[in-house]
C-alpha cells in the first residue's frame, strides 16, 4: 500500500503535474485493467436492470402495460435521485477517509457488498414498493463505489496519460451492456437476473481492491465534517469555476439524450414492432453487440487521438453529433435492421464521448484536495438525466402518441435535440482545448 500524507500545497502539486513534473509517471501496473474491471462489474450490476430486467420484473407484478410504464418511471426516476446524492457525498467522504486500508478501498468493497444485497431483495420482491426501496439502496451503494473508484484516476495517473486510461475504462460501459444482455438470455427467473450481475460486480471489485495501491491519508482532516460540508458536496460555484459548470451542463445534456434509449427500448420493441418478451431480449442483445463493436473502435481511438492532439472539446462535440444522428435514425426506424444500425451509430458516438469525457473532467476540477467530491458533483450530470428522463418520458410519449410521429418517435427526437445542445455547448469550455 502506498502511504501519502496530505499534500501541503495541492494547487502547486497540480500545477507541477500539468507542467510536466508528473508526465513521466505512469499508471501503476495493473491499475488500468483493474479500474476498467471494477467499472465493468458495477455497470453490469446497475445497467442490466435499467436495460432489461427491471422492465420485465415490474411487468411481472403489474396489472397492465400502462401501469408497468408508470412504475418503471417511478422506480428508475427515484432511484436515480439517490444516485444523484450518493455519488458526490461518497466522493467527499472518501476524500476524508483515513482508514488504514486507504481512502478509496473501503468504499469500493463495502458499497459493492451492500449493492448485491439490494439486488437480491429486488429479485424476490412481490410489490413495487419493495422494488423501489431496494433499488434506491442499490443506486446509493453502487454509485458510492463508482465515485471512489473513478476518483483514483487523478490519484494514480498524470494528466497527459488520462485520455488513454479514460478510453480503456470507457469500454466498460458497452461491454457491461453486452454482458448484461447476454446473461439475461440464459437467466429465466427474476432472482438470478438481479443477483448474478451483482455477484460479478462484487468479484471484480474485490480484484480491484487487491490490485489498487491506494492513496492513504495519515492525518485526519483539520476541519470536521459539518452540515455545511454535507450540502457543499452537491454544489459548486459556476461563476468562480465556469469551465467546470459548462462541463457539467455538456455532460448532462448529452447523457440526457442517451439516458432514455435503453430504459424504454424493451417497450419500444414490444409495442412498435410487436415482439414478445424473449424476442425483445434477443433483439436488444443484437443491438448492443452492434453498439459495443462501434464503441470498441471509437473508445480507445478517441482517447489516444485526444491525448496526441492535446485536445478534448472536438472529440466531445463529434461524439454528441454522431449520437444525434443515431437517435434520429432510431426514432424513425422502419424495421429491426435499421434499429440495430442506429444502435451501432449511437455506440460509435458514445464510445468517443466516454473516451474523452473523464479525461476532460479531471482537467477542470476546481479543487485538487476534493477530487472525488468534484468528480461526484460532475457525476450528478450522469445520474440526474436517469432520474428526469424516466419521470418525463411517459408524458412525452403520451403526448407524442396523439401526433403523426407516435409516442416513442417523439421521445427519441426530443432526446436527439437535447444531445445536440450538449454537443454545441462544449465550446463554452475555455480552459481546455
Automatic annotation (TrEMBL):
Bias kind Low complexity: ranges: 8-23
Alphabetized UniProt keyword annotations: Membrane, Transmembrane, Transmembrane helix
Cellular component GO terms held in the UniProt record: plasma membrane
Membrane topology, record value: Multi-pass membrane protein
Signal peptide annotation: none
Keyword Membrane recorded: yes
Transmembrane segments: 33-56, 68-86, 107-126, 132-153, 165-188, 194-212, 248-269, 281-303, 315-333, 339-362, 383-402, 408-427
Subcellular localization, as worded in the UniProt entry: Cell membrane
Region (Disordered): 1-25
Broad class of where this protein is predominantly found: membrane
Name of this protein: MFS transporter
Amino acid at each position: 500500500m502506498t502511504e501519502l500524507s496530505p499534500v501541503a500545497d495541492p494547487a502547486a502539486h497540480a500545477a507541477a503535474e500539468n507542467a510536466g513534473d508528473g508526465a513521466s509517471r505512469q499508471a501503476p501496473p495493473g491499475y488500468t485493467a483493474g479500474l476498467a474491471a471494477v467499472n465493468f462489474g458495477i455497470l453490469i450490476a446497475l445497467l442490466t436492470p435499467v436495460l432489461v430486467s427491471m422492465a420485465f420484473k415490474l411487468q411481472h407484478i403489474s396489472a397492465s402495460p400502462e401501469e408497468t410504464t408508470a412504475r418503471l418511471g417511478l422506480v428508475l426516476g427515484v432511484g436515480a435521485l439517490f444516485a444523484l446524492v450518493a455519488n458526490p457525498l461518497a466522493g467527499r467522504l472518501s476524500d476524508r477517509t483515513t482508514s488504514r486500508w486507504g481512502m478509496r478501498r473501503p468504499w469500493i468493497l463495502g458499497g459493492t457488498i451492500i449493492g448485491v444485497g439490494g439486488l437480491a431483495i429486488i429479485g424476490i420482491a412481490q410489490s413495487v414498493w419493495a422494488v423501489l426501496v431496494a433499488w434506491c439502496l442499490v443506486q446509493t451503494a453502487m454509485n458510492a463505489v463508482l465515485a471512489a473508484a473513478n476518483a483514483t484516476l487523478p490519484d494514480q495517473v498524470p494528466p497527459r496519460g488520462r485520455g488513454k486510461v479514460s478510453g480503456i475504462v470507457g469500454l466498460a460501459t458497452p461491454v457491461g451492456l453486452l454482458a448484461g444482455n447476454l446473461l439475461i438470455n440464459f437467466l429465466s427467473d427474476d432472482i438470478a437476473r438481479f443477483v448474478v450481475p451483482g455477484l460479478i460486480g462484487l468479484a471484480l471489485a474485490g480484484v480491484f481492491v487487491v490490485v489498487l495501491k491506494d492513496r492513504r491519508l495519515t492525518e485526519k482532516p483539520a476541519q470536521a465534517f459539518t452540515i455545511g460540508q454535507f450540502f457543499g458536496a452537491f454544489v459548486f460555484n459556476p461563476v468562480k469555476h465556469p469551465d467546470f459548470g459548462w462541463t457539467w451542463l455538456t455532460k448532462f445534456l448529452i447523457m440526457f439524450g442517451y439516458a432514455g434509449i435503453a430504459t424504454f427500448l424493451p417497450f419500444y420493441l414490444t409495442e412498435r414492432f410487436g415482439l414478445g418478451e424473449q424476442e425483445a431480449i434477443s433483439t436488444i442483445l443484437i443491438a448492443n453487440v452492434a453498439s459495443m463493436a462501434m464503441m470498441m473502435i471509437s473508445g480507445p481511438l478517441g482517447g489516444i487521438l485526444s491525448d496526441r492532439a492535446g485536445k478534448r472539446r472536438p472529440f466531445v462535440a463529434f461524439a454528441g453529433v454522431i449520437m444525434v444522428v443515431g437517435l434520429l435514425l432510431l426514432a424513425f426506424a422502419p424495421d429491426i435492421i435499421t434499429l440495430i444500425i442506429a444502435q451501432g451509430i449511437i455506440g460509435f458516438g458514445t464510445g468517443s464521448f466516454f473516451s474523452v469525457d473523464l479525461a476532460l473532467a479531471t482537467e477542470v476540477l476546481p479543487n485538487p484536495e476534493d477530487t472525488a467530491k468534484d468528480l461526484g458533483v460532475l457525476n450528478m450530470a450522469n445520474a440526474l438525466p436517469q432520474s428526469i428522463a424516466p419521470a418525463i418520458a411517459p408524458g412525452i410519449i403520451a403526448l407524442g402518441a396523439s401526433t403523426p410521429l407516435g409516442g416513442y418517435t417523439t421521445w427519441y427526437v426530443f432526446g436527439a435535440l437535447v444531445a445536440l445542445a450538449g454537443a454545441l455547448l462544449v465550446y463554452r469550455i475555455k480552459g481546455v482545448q
